[in-house]
Amino acid sequence: MDDDPVLRSLSADLERDDPALAAFLTGEARPRHRHSAAWLLLALPLLIPALLLPMRVSLGLLAMSTVLASPALVCWLCAVTEGPATEGPATHGP
For the chain, how many helices (H) and strands (E)? Predict the structure, then answer.
């Protein structure tokens, strides 16, 4: 631990304002992997036909599905991105 009172006060302010960031910076919390079970369930049915079909067909299907799914994935990523935290009503002057 740092013995500097300024660093301790900044740490306390950070823990009060953003506890998730404070835990991440101190190494207490690990980033969680979202949708790991969904990726596993998606990969299993796709892996079996990929092993049975010729390589050229598998790569063609993979390329087509990537191109066709990319707009939907971009929209999904934009929708789940967390924006900046909104604060309460402004307490500043007029």
Answer: 4, 0
